[in-house]
């Protein structure tokens, strides 16, 4: 089993940098961020020459023009415009195909949230059916490609997300498992998977890739399923092996303490986290709940003030 | 004078692709989009080998880690978080320095718009002074670097924007002129410049870089200053030299016709534009004004319906 303590951290870092890049060019901002956070804390001693990923020329050669234009519109959140130009592409690159399908998915999501906010009271069956019809179209296209084994790890992730939306939870689980096998360093796929696992028995029955990141997923699941000791043991191993200052792992340790009601320890870790990542909003809701339970009014007031201040800049 | 008809379009395209990349890594989405739109329509016959820009290893070597993390937070619009990590950097790369200053600028802008919306009625002098103080800090830092000639074309652009905010219009004009000399293909700098030029006399007195893109700027200015014929002549030259399907240029032609009250011609070009870029919202306000003036109720209703539909997906 690929254990973090037995690995070459320069290699781990190189792979994380590549994952950041792979997510970033596909508009997967959260996946890119997680990979960046994990890579950032690793201070490898080796020369970092060659660490910086290159755009795969082969991949993009034929479709770089349309990719460049569509990604610009995508970044401006003009998803339909991105889709319009991408659909004229031949999809010789898996990146343009992913961007095409992902932009369609995000456009549909925007449309759905518009329908929900704008006409909540009067939202008739026809509107709900339209939303459903759109996501079913995506599902049909992705499942055809899936049968032909034409989906890469990122498209498998998207297919899993679509299946989840349609409440096809067993299929979603299987497809997301395929996704993490093909792209283990895309954290988004693990994250989608974790909400589909109700108990430890199911967790242990899954065939997970033999990759160091699996342990971060297991730790996350153990923490959520109240097996805190097991979770903390894994996180400690990461801390001991180069990830001591990783904000993601520190936050997860704090959350695990919270899940096991070790509030004092949780507060301690959250305070440390605040030192290294003072403008973080992620997980601060949990910190604030703990401070409330502990009746730590001073810290709560300080946190609340900080969060409100940060929010003014976002 | 660098005239588009005398240039190698493969080279022009290569430079535009590089400009798209340079803007994109700095979070300048609009600049990246304009370069992409100009590049996209150029169908060069030459082999495009080598067209795809590479991340400059030299530039990033030392600071790729912090860049990667900060850019992720930047893309999530968590500007203060990006700033926090970037400020620990030594800024050996002009890219990280730009991102650091730009994230600070955008954070300040967010704060300012928060102050304006949240407490419009009660906004006291102290709040306005705070906003002003923050932008002055940026100005001071940038002007020190400027004196030492340490600002690249993108930082000069940002410095120009900051000077404009402080109503230092003469200084802003000079700095933006430096910016377009250093980075002529960053359209954002031209765009900032164009609002600073009140008349043709001022326009002709400026020392502009001898670069083909200058002509697009001149055309834009001529159009705004009601010298429509001169504007259209320039745009036509671009159309005749490879840019026939460029959405930006088609839109500019339509706007020039509108400026000279040639409404029928404007409508015609807008209709053509709609065919190639059906999900465009940019400039559709102008199209709708023309249709209103022309009392073209059918088209107006169609346009209004389309715009509302597109808006649901954004």
TrEMBL record, chains A, B:
GO terms for cellular component: anaphase-promoting complex. InterPro entries: APC8, TPR-like_helical_dom_sf. Pfam families: ANAPC8. Keywords: Repeat, TPR repeat. Residues 11-254 form the Cdc23 domain. The keyword Metal-binding does not apply. GO terms for biological process: anaphase-promoting complex-dependent catabolic process; cell division; positive regulation of mitotic metaphase/anaphase transition; protein ubiquitination. This is APC8. It comes from Acanthosepion pharaonis (Pharaoh cuttlefish).
């Amino acid at each position: 089993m690929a254990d973090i303590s037995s690995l070459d951290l320069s290699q781990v870092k190189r792979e994380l940098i590549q994952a950041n890049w792979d997510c970033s060019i596909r508009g997967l901002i959260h996946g890119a961020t997680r990979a960046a956070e994990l890579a950032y804390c690793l201070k490898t001693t080796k020369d970092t020459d060659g660490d910086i990923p290159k755009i795969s020329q082969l991949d993009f050669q034929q479709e770089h023009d349309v990719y460049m234009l569509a990604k610009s519109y995508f970044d401006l959140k003009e998803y339909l415009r991105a889709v319009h130009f991408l659909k004229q592409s031949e999809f010789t690159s898996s990146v343009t195909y992913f961007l095409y399908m992902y932009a369609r998915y995000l456009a549909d999501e925007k449309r759905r949230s518009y329908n929900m906010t704008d006409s909540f009271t009067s939202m008739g069956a026809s509107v709900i059916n339209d939303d459903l019809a759109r996501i079913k179209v995506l599902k049909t296209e992705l499942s055809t490609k899936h049968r032909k084994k034409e989906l890469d790890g990122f498209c498998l992730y998207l297919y899993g997300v679509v299946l989840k939306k349609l409440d096809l939870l067993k299929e979603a689980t299987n497809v997301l498992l395929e996704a993490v096998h093909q792209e283990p360093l895309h954290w988004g796929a693990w994250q989608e998977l974790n909400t589909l696992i109700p108990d430890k028995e199911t967790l242990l029955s899954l065939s997970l890739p033999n990759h160091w990141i699996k342990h971060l997923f297991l730790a996350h699941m153990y923490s959520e399923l109240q097996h805190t000791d097991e979770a903390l043991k894994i996180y400690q191993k990461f801390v001991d092996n180069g990830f001591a200052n990783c904000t993601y792992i520190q936050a997860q340790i704090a959350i695990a303490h919270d899940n096991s009601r070790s509030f004092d320890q949780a507060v301690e870790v959250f305070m440390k986290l605040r030192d290294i990542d003072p403008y973080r909003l992620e997980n601060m809701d949990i910190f604030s709940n703990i401070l409330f339970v502990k009746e730590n009014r001073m810290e709560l007031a300080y946190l609340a003030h900080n969060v409100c201040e940060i929010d003014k800049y976002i």
